[in-house]
Amino acid sequence: MSIPRDIREFLEGYPDATDDPNASANLEFYSNRRRCRPDNRLIDEIHEQWTGNYSKLESKHGYIQWLFPIQEYGMNYQSQPLQRHEIQAMKADPTIIGRITTSYEMMLDFYGMRLVSADSGLVDRSLPPRNYVSNYKNLVRSSHNNLRISRILKCLSEFGLEHLNVGFLLHVLCEQSESDNLNTPGIRSSMDRWWTNCIRNDEERRRVADLIRKVRAGTDGYVFTRDMYNAAIAKADGVTEMVGGVIESIDAAAGKATDVAVQPAA
């Protein structure tokens, strides 16, 4: 069992990546000073004009590398791999971090979800007039979104927003376990091999992987409920008094982690 190569490089912090101080396209784009290519939009224009436009978000493919830059080349050769000096500058700018969070919220909405709390990472289904059912169906049907999600999670980690990854992953796990939503072999494979490992914090990665393994095993009819999801996110956010003994039951069910979640390479 081995972690896919791109995930291994991500977890190691891209040790072979170099930094070009003259390459700042991502910083300029997220500063609302550069238009993405090929769509010729500023970041604020994308947020204003594309949120809720599901056909555009589904059919266009060049924007995702701009909205979620990572230290890897993507399929859009008019985009630029994220540079290390850009990471530092962007992380230090609250306006840019806010825009990255808005990009994440736009994609969650496209996937039939909503960010309940940016602080804790708590995610839930979209509310009316949105129709989460149709968005879930599209996510199941359009498997290229699995690759997009891997990029999104890597990007969030780069910018100190890794708690959002945990909220997303455990929401999907809850939907699979409690409601049999998003529970196709393709999504489970991407989740178990790639998405779960897009967490650089070893403790959090093990915690999420343990819960996923428990659900996959289905021992004693184990179900990861919404209450358990809320408790797990509260624990990650340092809030324990509001959930009583639920957190302890989650820990007992998951057991002690002994190694990193490792899934077969694709």
List keywords for this structure.
266 residues, 54% helix, mainly alpha, single chain
Could you walk me through the main structural features you see in this protein, from its secondary elements to its overall organization?
The protein has 266 residues and is mainly alpha-helical. It has one domain. It contains 14 helices and two strands. The protein has helices at residues 5-11, 25-30, 43-50, 54-59, 64-67, 84-91, 94-110, 132-141, 144-158, 162-179, 185-193, 202-217, 226-236, 246-254, and strands at 113-115, 123-125. It has a two-stranded antiparallel ribbon with strand order 1-2. Helix 10 (162-179) packs parallel to helix 12 (202-217). It is globular, with a radius of gyration of 18 Å. The protein starts with a helix and ends in a 12-residue tail after the last helix. The model is unreliable at 239-266 (pLDDT under 50). Belongs to the opioid growth factor receptor family. Residues 21-216 form the Opioid growth factor receptor (OGFr) conserved domain. This is Opioid growth factor receptor (OGFr) conserved region. Keywords: Receptor. GO terms for molecular function: opioid growth factor receptor activity.
Give the SSE layout.
Elements: H1 5-11, H2 25-30, H3 43-50, H4 54-59, H5 64-67, H6 84-91, H7 94-110, E1 113-115, E2 123-125, H8 132-141, H9 144-158, H10 162-179, H11 185-193, H12 202-217, H13 226-236, H14 246-254
Antiparallel strand pairs: 1-2
Helix pairs in contact: 3-7, 9-10, 10-12, 10-13
